Amino acid sequence: MAKKLTLAAPAQQAAYEPRKEDFAFLRARDIETDQNFASQGYWKGVLLHFFKNRRAVIGLIIVSLIIFFAVVGPMMSGFGYRDIVQTRNENNKRVVAKGISPQIPWLQRLLTGEEPSGAFGGYTFLFGTDDLGRDLWTRTWYGARVSLLIAFITIIIDMIIGMSYGLISGYFGGMADNIMQRFVEIANSVPRLVIVSVLAIFMPKGMGLVIVALLLTEWIGMSKIARAEMLKIKEQEYVLASRTLGARHSHIIFREILPNTIGPIITQVMFSIPTAIFTEAFLSFVGVGIVLPQCSVGTLIEDGFNNITTLPYQILPPIVVLALLMLGFNFIGDGLREALAPKIEDM
Amino acid sequence: MLKYVLKRVGMALLTLLIITFLLFVLVRIMPGNPFPSERMSDEQIANKRAEMGLDDPILVQFGRYMAGVLQGDFGKGTSLYYGAPIKTVLSTAISNSFRIGGIAILVGTLAGLALGITAALNRGRFMDGFCTVFSILGVCVPSYVFLIFLQYNFAFRIPFFPYFFDPNRFLFSTVMPSLSLSLFTMSTIARFTRNEMVEVFDSDYVRLAESKGLYGRKLVLRHVLRNALIPIVTVLAPLVVDLLTGALVVEKIYGINGIGKLMVDAIAGEGIDYNYVLALGILYSTLYIGVMLLVDLLYGVLDPRIRVSAKAEEG
Predict the structure, then answer these.
(1) Looking at beta carbons, which residues of chain A come within 8 Å of B284?
(2) Which pLDDT tens digit goes with each residue over B199-217?
């Protein structure tokens, strides 16, 4: 169009005669669709923003995949997480699959054209076996399952505690708020390490200690966010209206206000889950977390570290799973935060 | 301003006192007998208890303990180091940990700032992408994993650095633990600096400064960086805490006799050493509260608006 006009412009004589080939039908993708955010529901908008965010989608895929493998992975190999894989060799002697590096027989056959040899030649060990002869594929996903379970359980309980605490503190304000906030300040001033060490005196090492340590520390962040949201919302008209109609405090807090604070709280949950996984891995590595023969990502990293000079491949799977979990949850959290409070230029 | 400082310091001290008291009580009400009872008669135990003041009211005991702590006397370990005085063990541990932690914080902060500033100045180009990838990596990979990687490659396969910490080759054996500890600090600060600087660059007052003819180093240092630094200071406190936590495993892996390793030994060994738990608990809490206080005060120095609002509060 533009080209034609400039060609025609200097001459200024013959009127333009429309020709058939100058025109084409508009296809659907040529028409700019107007995405009007005002007309759709709040959560639909959030979801739309979330799925437009490439990183958030990648995070969601990573986390979903790991959860999928954590659920079905241990069943796929046919070995138990504490089973020592063993068989009998040609002399009918018992041999244990100690320290076998990752092997896939059919791939070996394909690449070299030879039958894999040895007593365990026909076995598939995707991640290899550890120094005791346990299948690392099974153990890695079983460990991921334990770590994820601990994280989910504690963070959900923390969310309930922290949310209620923050909402109540923010709602009533005044003296109650003052006392409750002083308590939070003191609780927040105790380093997590100190809490763990004192707990270690009173509790046996193991999953319980990790869960209690996380319960005691992670609720604080949630309560702060819930309180800030409450302070933002509680002066709005609909709260006043509800109060005028005679609603009880509990109704206003949990029925009227809570649903409107849930966004930032879920975002905080997404950031707390990796913290929980990280803490669990750290405590298990140090030796106050998960105890044998149970395993988690942390104990697997420790096992790998102990055998690093002889079986260096052993440490890789749990580290990669841990890093991917951190990455995935952080991406989801970032995506949610942006989707819940989009800046004008993103719209 | 002075009143504000005093108020913050007072609050911090009070919090610390409360935490110390709670720790003391928790450790003292521990079930169990401090004396191996099968070799001592009941009378002997009673005498010993009275001699050590274990029958006094808890507040008296606490007062006595605190009086000792203020003079640096934490008592003796119950199982670690054959009951050597905690003071001597702790002082070497602190000096080791602080040197390595200090280098890590220094390197991490400076390198992080440099990386963040470079990324912000080259927005959308290679350095920016590198900064993003690096900061993601630093958040996802724990410092001890990084240390294991370094140890395997540069101490085991290529034996350039010592495999374990060697006090006689202090400088040489500090490189790997400090580097791995600084990774998290570096990546967090780099990401924060970049985002803050990008935001400040887009602000109206920087545009005004630019339109008045300011450019280059003066603009970046005086107008952008100063304003971008304020939020960065707030992340420093959690970073120091993360460093303390990370140091626990790093010291364990690398065999450094620091406070982190001491803590691991105290809680993860065969028996738990209560006196070490108490002493280290007090030490960690003091560090933590001290850093938070410092950041609070630094924040006031960096941001005049906070000084003003603090004055108004005194008002």
Answers:
(1) 191, 193-194
(2) 887 788 878 887 887 777 7
Q: Which residue of A has its CA nearest to B17?
A: A186
Q: How far is A7 from chain B (nearest CA, A)?
A: 39
CATH class for the domain made up of B87-268: mainly alpha
Q: What is the pTM (predicted TM-score) of this model? A: 0.79
B60 vs B78: CA distance, rounded Å: 21
Closest partner residue to B27 among A191, A201, A301, by Cβ?
A201
Contacts of A185 in chain B (CB under 8 A): 15
Among residues B182, B8, B39, the alpha carbon closest in space to that of B109 is found at B182
- Chain A residues with CB under 8 Å of a chain B CB are 185-186, 189-194, 196-198, 200-202, 205, 278, 281-282, 285-288, 301, 305, 308-309, 312, 315, 319, 322-324, 326-327, 330
* Overall average pLDDT of the A143-159 stretch: 89
Q: Which of A65-79, A116-130, A254-268, B274-288 has the lowest mean pLDDT?
A: A116-130
For residue B241, which residues of chain A lie inside 8 Å, CB to CB?
191
In chain B, CATH 1.10.3720.10 covers 87-268
Give B-chain residues touching A285 at CB under 8 angstroms: 144, 249
Residue of chain B nearest A195, judged by CA positions: B281
The pLDDT tens digits of the residues spanning B154-168 come to 888 777 777 777 777
| More confidently predicted of B85 and A325 | A325
| Domain boundaries along the sequence of chain A | 139-346
Check whether domain A139-346 has CATH 2.70.70.10, yes or no? no
Query: Residue with structure tokens 């008209």?
Result: A237
pLDDT of residue A116: 65
Q: How much is the pLDDT for A120?
A: 67
Q: Does A344 have pLDDT greater than 50?
A: no
pLDDT at A3: 47
Closest CB from B27, B268, B272 relative to A286 = B268
